[in-house]
Amino acid sequence: MPNAARISPLAPKSYPEMPPIEGVRLAVGAAGIRYAGRSDVMLALFDEATQVAGVFTKSKCASAPVDWCRARLAGVIAIRNGSRRRDPTARALLVNSGNANAFTGKTGKEAVKFSAKLAAAATGAPERQIFLASTGVIGEPLDASKFDGLLEKLAQEARPDAWLEAARAIMTTDTYPKLATRTALVGGVEVRVSGIAKGAGMIAPDMATMLSFVFTDAAIASPALQSLLSKSARGSFNSITVDGDTSTSDTLLLFATGAAARRGAPQIDKANDRRLTDFRRALDALLLDLAHQVVKDGEGARKFVEITVDGAKTPKAAKRIALSIANSPLVKTAIAGEDANWGRIVMAVGKAGEAADRDKLAIWFGDIRVAHKGQRDPAYDEAQVSQLMRRDAIAVRVDLGLAKGAATVWTCDLTKDYVAINGDYRS
Amino acid sequence: MPNAARISPLAPKSYPEMPPIEGVRLAVGAAGIRYAGRSDVMLALFDEATQVAGVFTKSKCASAPVDWCRARLAGVIAIRNGSRRRDPTARALLVNSGNANAFTGKTGKEAVKFSAKLAAAATGAPERQIFLASTGVIGEPLDASKFDGLLEKLAQEARPDAWLEAARAIMTTDTYPKLATRTALVGGVEVRVSGIAKGAGMIAPDMATMLSFVFTDAAIASPALQSLLSKSARGSFNSITVDGDTSTSDTLLLFATGAAARRGAPQIDKANDRRLTDFRRALDALLLDLAHQVVKDGEGARKFVEITVDGAKTPKAAKRIALSIANSPLVKTAIAGEDANWGRIVMAVGKAGEAADRDKLAIWFGDIRVAHKGQRDPAYDEAQVSQLMRRDAIAVRVDLGLAKGAATVWTCDLTKDYVAINGDYRS
User: Fold this and answer.
1) Final residue belonging to a domain, choices A296, A316, A337
2) Which of A187, A329, A339, A366 is deepest in the core (most CB within 10 A)?
């Protein structure tokens, strides 16, 4: 539930200016799905032949819209299996907040089909080019008939500059809209990549955000786009956690209109094309920016926490240990209490199940080493650390001293507000 | 830190009467390790040839006392490897609260050696028959010299009826002492098994409690005792969770004095001896009783939650799903808010990574089925469920509808008090 009265203390001071992405138009409306007096539907329209890629929740109980999007993207998978090449393309994206259409069984599947049918009718695109996402309460049937009539209106109203409205329409317990934009050079031509995101609780890899939609005018074919997106998600949305809980609805979609080709940008078909270097950098930075915004709006969050683990046997082991620290309620409550409780960090390292040698461990808060070689650092000054713990952003670093595996993840603290927000979400 | 002012609302109304266990004497004292005005040391003395078994934390950064106990028990492992048979025996158990002697490196190892030396001198037993456990703050050196002088006094004072004092001396953030006792017939002779436990946060399998010590006068050889204990821990201490965090110090020790043999109880050498049937039942019941007491004293707990998963592919899959539900902050905060939010149960099932079919799932709160076949149960009455959610004890059942794997785990809700308790533990 949006809580305009209380905005996260970690919210950005201002929203970025979001120039249009050629080939993308946006519109929002109020379907009255759950919230009163606010928009809860977002429709994005794309130029013909817009390429598309997606990364979704790994939940075994994915929502009906996630199933729908996966099926629409299946063309990419078919190529890998050597079947007929039929890359997915997108003409519209319909997103609603207030109801996740998850665990709604047959009714949910029908709601998805009906939504796609309505969106297809409103936009003139075939159903297979309609992408869908829903976020909000789980287990309640979504009344898709509420979209009826509204989508035609949105399709007519859609305009290239409705970014902030779009980011607001997809919010649930978010306290601020999340937007980011970057530019990159592809074959010497400037292209733009912009995105919006939402997510405040139930945030954990994989996926780490509930919903994020990214758009670019670069001309990149769907299979290459998929490869770029999957890789970029690993170090961003799949490296953040609020509470270790994984939504049934997590969806990250990337749409490439290809409009920059008209300005001379090259058409790129392979992910390993060298001309993508700068685009990859921009995409990575954009997703990380959005992912950090999601963490900073973690339910009840007062502190943004970066956890880096190095010296692990492998990067995978480092990430597992980093997530064990990031998800530990004892670590998170200690940080909320501005307590540099490195004993709890040791505990979280120990429980991760990866190789660790107590007597080789070193731990830093910021640049202050609090522990090394299996014990408290004699030089560690409690007052200095206390000062540091009062900051909004806390960096924790653990060196396992075993090998070279490293990983960084981001999380927030666990406060009484988290409990309050989630203890009466439905009441 | 003990909080006598606030006792868990789930605390037992009274403590059980604890008759002596022949061959066991107990004493407590105040070494001033951390707390003022309370006992923080417990010494248990055992008859000669007392048999012993243990189950410990799976943390990769186990505390120095855990390392010590494992080494003392190593005789059992040696048998399995076919080496020389030298079963472990115990003459004394020394436990302190206030300092866990964990992540204290070399100093910690030395403190353990010194503690064992002092206990050996005070009791006249060899060091290899001394068992040790410590609980409290991690990472601070334990000053074992504080035991000097005190242990002689305790060894002299030890008496068979100091159960409640012992249970109190090992408390940290516990709000009440945990004790339980049972009897069993072994070869027609009544034997007794009694135990104490402590643990309030950082409670998760494996192990689920920080410390528990169990004593019996039955005559059971260490290897058989180990087998009984490992199995019994699986369905009790290793099936509870408060916050998913695993202590570096978790220790469960079972001591069998064999004194019942003097009353005609048979000497049992093998765990599969049929004469152990009733003892096994009593041990299972005792450990489950103590484990439930630990959960009911979970930091900030207001509700005791039993989670049963059946219809899973295997018992292991069922347990993993049950723990995923039990550890989900979103499920736990919903229960704290008395909200029968089965959508979050679905989420937790989905994220467990085990096979699950949304359209076959059924979920009950108490005996009210709230969801089945992938959607909300049409017969589900919100008012009736709300009534049920107000109770102290909540039972959640999930039927996956896939096969016959089943498991039950126990947890508590996640309240603002948990955050308060852990946000200023050190301050």
Assistant:
1) A296
2) A329
The answer to whether A103 and A249 are in contact (CB under 8 A) is no
The per-residue b/e assignment along A309-344, b for 16 or more CB within 10 angstroms, e otherwise, is bbbbebeebbbbbbbbbbbbbbbbbbbbbbbbbbbb
Q: For residue range A240-258, what is the model confidence (pLDDT) as tens digits?
A: 877 666 677 889 999 999 9
Please indicate, yes or no, if residue B12 is contained in any of the structural domains: no
Residue B333 amino acid letter: T
In this structure, are A124 and A230 located in the same domain?
yes
**Nearest-CA distance from B358 to chain A in Å?**
5
Residues A248 and A337 in one domain: no
B204 and B287, same domain (yes or no): yes
Mapping DSSP to helix (H, G, I), strand (E, B) and coil, where does residue A127 land? helix
User: What backbone torsions phi and psi does residue A268 show, to the nearest 5 degrees?
Assistant: -110, 130
Largest Cα–Cα separation, chain A? 70
Residue to mutate among A245, A338, A377, A418, with most B CBs inside 10 A, is A245
CA closest to B343 among chain A residues: A138
User: Of the candidates A59, A140, A423, which has its C-beta nearest B334's C-beta?
Assistant: A423
Instruction: Please count the other Cβ atoms lying within 10 Å of the Cβ belonging to residue A83.
Output: 11
| Residues spanned by the domain of B65 | 24-296
The reply to whether A331 falls in a domain is yes
Alpha helices in A194-336 (DSSP H): 222-234, 277-296, 315-327, 329-336
For residue A426, pLDDT over 70 is answered with no
Q: What is the pLDDT of residue A350?
A: 85
| Residue A8 is assigned to a structural domain of this protein | no
Say whether pTM exceeds 0.90: no
Interface test with B, best of A107, A422, A426 (most B CBs within 10 A): A422
Tell me if B62 sits within 8 A of A350, measured CB to CB.
yes
Among B275, B296, B317, the domain boundary falls at: B296
Please state, in angstroms and as integers, the Cα–Cα distance from residue A232 to each residue in A24, A270, A284, B103, B138, following that order: 22, 16, 5, 37, 38
CA dist B190 → B24, B216, B265, B274 (Å): 17, 11, 8, 15
Catalytic residue, chosen from A89, A209, A248, A308, is: A209
In a shared domain, residues A252 and A142: yes
Q: Could you tell me if A398 and A361 are in contact, meaning their C-beta atoms sit under 8 angstroms apart?
A: yes
Q: A209 an active-site residue?
A: yes
Burial of B164 by CB count in 10 Å (0-12 exposed, 13-18 middle, 19+ buried)?
middle
- CA B380/CA A169 separation, integer angstroms: 31
pLDDT tens, position by position, B368-389: 999 988 788 888 888 899 999 9
Burial (CB count within 10 angstroms: exposed 0-12, middle 13-18, buried 19+), residue A382: exposed
What CATH number has the domain bearing residue B409? 3.10.20.340
**Residues B354 and B228 occupy one common structural domain:** no
Say yes or no: A215 and A328 in one domain. no
Q: Is residue A18 part of a domain?
A: no
Instruction: Indicate if B169 and B289 belong to the same structural domain.
Output: yes
Q: How many domains does chain A have?
A: 2
Higher pLDDT, B124 or B356: B124
